[in-house]
Specification:
- This protein has about 675 residues and is α+β, with helices and mostly antiparallel strands.
- The protein folds into seven domains: about 10-105, Phosphorylase Kinase, domain 1 (2-Layer Sandwich), CATH 3.30.200; about 115-330, Transferase(Phosphotransferase), domain 1; about 340-375; about 380-440, Trypsin Inhibitor V, Chain A (2-Layer Sandwich), CATH 3.30.10; about 450-515, Trypsin Inhibitor V, Chain A (2-Layer Sandwich); about 520-580, Trypsin Inhibitor V, Chain A (2-Layer Sandwich), CATH 3.30.10.20; about 585-660, Trypsin Inhibitor V, Chain A (2-Layer Sandwich), CATH 3.30.10.
- It is about 30% helix and about 25% strand.
- It has 17 helices and 34 strands.
- The strands form twelve sheets. Strands 1-2-3-4-5-7-6 form a seven-stranded mixed sheet, covered by helices on one side. A three-stranded antiparallel sheet has the order 8-9-10.
- A hairpin with a 2-residue loop joins strand 30 and strand 31 (about 625).
- The radius of gyration is 46 Å and the shape is elongated.
- Mean pLDDT is about 80; it is low at about 1-20, about 175-190, about 300-355, about 355-360, about 370-375 and about 660-665.
């Protein structure tokens, strides 16, 4: 975004038009004055708030991050959270909105980032480190108390006011919004991967302990002048953080053993083993540094270009003594001035009249050189170099009188290894002849760690695997499952934690559950019991068999089932089956005149029961009837129809002395 673009006004909530650039007015009040920096997520402008008549900083998200409506919603939400954080060591957020692209309005300060301090000083002493880290922990303590996690603590996001040395933590909110959307950029990964806690590399949620880990890494870097676990690629760095402890800073610098212990605990792989909070980390560091905080002297240049300018403030620090320890000695710092200082330092002991003449000539020459460098040298528009090879880019820059500087490599799926992925300044930016353009070359696809998508829905899993940083081509298999609900991933290949190349086009498979398999219940009516059992087994069903009488089916055939035929049931379900025991209706046998024992047997054979009544043999005067112990009457009579289980009443006569013995005459 630069002056060469169309500049339109997006004011008072109206729909934005044109492209955001220098001179544009956002929301009718924020007038963009100059472009002061850019990163992987956003471009930063110095602006003037016409309503409150003050300078502010406006951070505008890059267009490739603003295509997702859900990201815009999260961006606004996180901006509101950040705006609620009021603390002397946190950059104040004043406003947010959308003018073609989302933007955040923040307080403005003329100062340096901690990264620039490291470039000037290379490393800091333990006392100087304490002077910086103490207020950083104060700001984070307040944020954590309000439930806000920074997620991207690093030297670039620690800002120091040049006027009074106030330290502030910047960029609350953006990292979280991007992480929630899955749109974190490769550039952001490269800028932040050295400070990622092991739990984040493993895919777990960030916590205040994750911010503490990042602070511990920053302490190491301030003391040693280098990052702790270097590697050839961002993913390799992340893997080292997940698997290796941070080394003691005393291996690279003169650091007290107590400070080593502070760094070791703050960066413990297990979050539960770190300090309870960042306030505890700060207290431990104060106790470990003999003599307390020491002023940080920065040789800051008046002609510094591209200084990250975000916050401003003179509030007293919450951690006593830290602000007083940070003071800047602002001196000329351009390359010409540095050369001149060296010449003067060597010549000072020998300066006489001739030396003064020589000095005057030197100053005259330097004045002419500076005049050319700052005023006369032609201004060039930086060409577009992204996608070019290094050789092509350097040749293009040479044609414009510009030089190339190779920056950190950037992994890229789209740009082949060795091609230009990013450039700074951006294409179209005005740059004087002789200026330098930083080129970030592609290192090819990065290595990524296969995440776990088990238990996620099919759409969720594919969204994760298709999106950054994975961009896998995924094969989807489907299988029935007795335990995993339909639509959820029940298996994956490779397993979570394995290393793959970004954009892998084969080898990534997810197996999605179809739920419990459904089968159709067969019609078992009239089938023999064994045949019915075989049919159920073939369908993956179990049978529970019982028997009952039935007039329509002969014994051994199915007369009833549940569920009904053609019902759809889960495979493995049980079908209740009733098998006929034969007809329930029988013909009553004629048992008149038979001995009672024989009559009972005949009735039982057809499923009837005998209800026997015994009476004494009747006498007709001197005449006695024969047939003692035999059936004299039956009800119902022989030949009648009865239901199995019914009773047939039998009347049996017996002599008085034989009653109870079923005695009587023989046949």
């Amino acid at each position: 975004m630069n002056q060469g673009f169309d500049q339109r006004v997006a004011g008072n909530g109206a729909a934005p038009v044109g492209t955001i650039g220098i001179g544009a007015v956002l929301a009718g009040r924020y007038r963009l004055i100059s472009r002061v920096g850019a990163g992987g997520m956003a471009t930063i402008f110095r602006a003037h708030d016409d309503t409150l008549d003050r300078d502010v900083a406006v951070k505008v998200l890059h267009d490739h991050l603003a295509d997702d409506p859900s990201l815009l919603l999260r961006f606004r939400t996180e901006a509101r959270h950040a705006a609620s954080l009021m603390h002397p060591h946190i950059v104040n957020v004043f406003d947010q909105g959308v003018a073609e692209l989302p933007y955040i309005v923040m307080e403005f300060v003329d100062g340096l980032s901690l990264r620039e301090v490291l470039r000037d000083r290379e490393r800091l002493s333990p006392g100087e480190t304490l002077a910086v880290i103490d207020p950083v922990c104060a700001g984070l303590t307040r944020a954590h108390a309000d439930g806000v996690i920074h997620r991207d603590v690093k030297p670039e996001n620690v800002l120091i006011a040049a006027r009074d040395g106030t330290v502030k933590v910047a960029d609350f909110g953006i990292a979280r919004a991007l992480a929630s959307s899955g749109l974190t950029t490769t550039g952001t990964l490269i800028g932040s991967v050295h400070y990622l806690a092991p739990e984040i590399v493993d895919g777990r949620e960030a916590t205040p302990a994750s911010d503490q880990y990042a602070v511990g890494v920053v302490i190491f870097e301030l003391l040693t002048g280098r990052k702790p676990l270097p590697a050839d690629s961002p993913m390799a760095v992340a893997l080292r953080h997940a698997r290796e402890p941070i080394p003691p800073p005393s291996q690279s610098a003169e650091v007290p053993a107590a400070v080593d212990e502070v760094v070791a605990r703050a960066t413990a792989p297990d979050p539960s083993q770190r300090y309870p909070d960042v306030a505890g980390l700060a207290a431990a560091l104060r106790a470990a540094v003999p003599g307390g905080p020491v002023p940080v002297i920065i040789q800051a240049s008046d002609d510094r270009d591209g200084t990250l300018i975000i916050p401003s403030g003179t509030e007293a620090t919450a951690f006593a003594g830290a602000a007083d320890a940070l003071r800047f000695r602002r001196q000329p710092g351009g390359s010409a001035w540095r050369w001149l200082r060296g010449v003067l330092a060597q010549a000072a002991p020998r300066l006489r009249l001739g030396g003064l003449v020589l000095l005057a000539l030197i100053l005259l020459g330097m004045g002419g050189w500076l005049t050319y460098d700052r005023v006369i040298a032609p201004v060039r528009a930086v060409p577009a170099l992204e996608g070019s090879t290094q050789e092509e880019a350097e040749a293009s820059l040479a044609e414009f009188g510009l030089a190339a500087e190779i920056g950190d490599p950037v992994s890229s799926l789209e740009v082949p290894a060795g091609g230009v992925v990013a450039q700074d300044p951006e294409a179209g930016t005005a740059l004087r002849s002789g200026g330098t353009v930083t080129l970030n070359l592609s290192s090819g696809p990065q290595s990524v760690i296969m995440p776990s998508v088990l238990g996620r829905t099919r759409d969720e899993a594919l969204a994760i695997l298709h999106d950054d940083p994975y961009r896998f081509t995924v094969r989807v298999d489907e299988e029935f499952s007795d335990t995993v609900p339909a639509g959820q991933v029940q298996a994956q290949a490779p397993d979570a934690g394995e290393e793959l190349e970004q954009g892998a086009e084969s080898g990534v498979v997810i197996n999605v559950s179809l739920g419990v398999e459904q089968v159709t219940v067969p019609d078992l009516s009239g089938r023999e019991r064994d045949e019915a059992a075989q049919l159920l087994q073939e369908r993956g069903l179990a049978g529970s068999f019982s028997e009952d009488f039935n007039d329509e089916q002969r014994a051994g055939r199915v007369v009833q089932q549940s569920p009904a035929p053609d019902s759809r049931v889960d495979k493995g379900s049980t079908v209740e089956v009733v098998v006929s025991r034969g007809s329930a209706s029988v013909e009553v046998p004629d048992v008149l005149g038979q001995r009672v024992e024989r009559a009972q047997e005949e009735l039982a054979e057809v499923g009837l029961e005998a209800e026997v009544t015994v009476q004494p043999v009747p006498r007709l005067g001197p005449i006695r009837l024969r047939g003692s112990g035999r059936v004299a009457q039956q009800d119902p009579e022989g030949g009648a129809t009865a239901q199995r289980g019914d009773s047939v009443r039998l009347l049996v006569f017996e002599e008085e002395d034989n009653r109870g013995r079923n005695g009587g005459d023989d046949d």
